[in-house]
Structure prediction request, 436 residues.
Amino acid sequence: MEHYVVKGGNPLSGEVEISGAKNAALAILAASVMADQPVKIENVPDVSDIRAIVGAIEQIGGQVDHPDRHTYCINGAFVRDEPVDNDAVRKIRGSYYLIGALLGKFNQAKVALPGGCDIGLRPIDQHLKGFRALGATVRLVPPGMVWASAQTLTGSHIYMDVVSVGATINIIMASVMAKGNTIIENAAKEPHVVDLANFLNSMGARIRGAGTDVIRIRGVEKLHGTEYSIIPDQIEAGTYMFAAAATRGDVTIRNVIPKHLECLTAKLKETGCEITESDDAVRVVAVRRLTHTNVKTLPYPGFPTDMQPQIGVLLSLAKGTSIITESIFENRFKYTDELAKMGASVRVEGNTAIIEGVEGFTGANMNAPDLRAGAALVTAALAATGYSDIYDIHYIERGYEDFPEKLRALGACIAKVNTAEEERKAVNSFNIRIVG
Ligand code: UD1
Prediction:
């Protein structure tokens, strides 16, 4: 079975280049079908979630050209007003952006309910509330599809009951070509909301206030072609920052927007890391054992829930008792059972994890429970003594481009293997590297 084999114990050191933001790219690729002209999108990460949404766009007639690994040219002129449904669409979360995009373009959309990581209930009531406020009739219809339809979409004043990234983006897309003005209050402020708004504005949309909690949209007649480059991935960058800290390494993370990483650098400083920022890079140095801290996940600019497993690993190795409060998703501590196999001491009570830091981990066989937790377990294995095998890596490949390759370039001993023979060869190569 395909898995990662890891030999831990090497502090990570060197430089790593961050890819484009997966969650921004999912929204922007979906929005690209709204124009009837070609759109060129650069800095798209090469990960399986992206291939899934591109496949869905092709299935409904979108012309997709893929001139290099990180660039897509999409022409939405031939996109058909058809149901969007296939296995891949049902597995990823970001496919729900096709509801807002197609509703905005055709006043009608029928899209399979999204999947995504099993980290909680993940309702989409706020998305549907927004579509209804714009004048759409919305129903859940068999087989597990969202159907939304409107004579005319009309701008509206929408107050979101919870701060939702997905609902904010979906409502923006459904309203950019609606008649009149839309105001979204209590909007999500995540960097990818801003990136999506910038992308749509470059296509002629009139969106103001993205990045604040009040977004104002003036409906335009149509959108035109554009060229756009996706922002760097805040969570990929954060994962390498925390991996550097957990292995007591020295890593410079390049092609980042340091502003997007402030809540992460603040926490790393609290634990005793040294952080140096430049225009588009952050260097993380951890020379000694880190110390405990407390953290609560919150919407941006708070500490991101997508970094909660990574900080859980770090604090499990830090001196003292730390408390993590998960306030966004109710089922996001599953990774702590896997971490216990390595010797971590974590007690979960509801949405709180109480962590007694241990001196070190020992390698173990683990299953990635979801995308971010999977990456965090790899980090733990890198910090452990001995070997670990990590299974269900398809989760990790949904969101991390070249994960083993980038880690190897930082001195990690990690390989993706499929057979016992491949594993034996990988382990031999680790030992040669260490001796050499
Ligand atoms: C997105 C990200 C995900 C990240 C999350 C929070 C994508 C593809 N996924 O997920 O990686 O972990 O933001 O930063 O971009 N909620 C409702 N009703 C709704 C929508 C959301 O109650 O209609 C709740 C959710 O259950 C959750 C909270 O709002 O408790 C935030 O969810 P949301 O921001 O919508 O997350 P996603 O868009 O699913």
User: Anything to note?
Assistant: Residues 100 and 121 are 21 Å apart (CA to CA). Residues 3-19+232-435 form a domain with the UDP-n-acetylglucosamine1-carboxyvinyl-transferase; Chain fold (CATH 3.65.10.10).
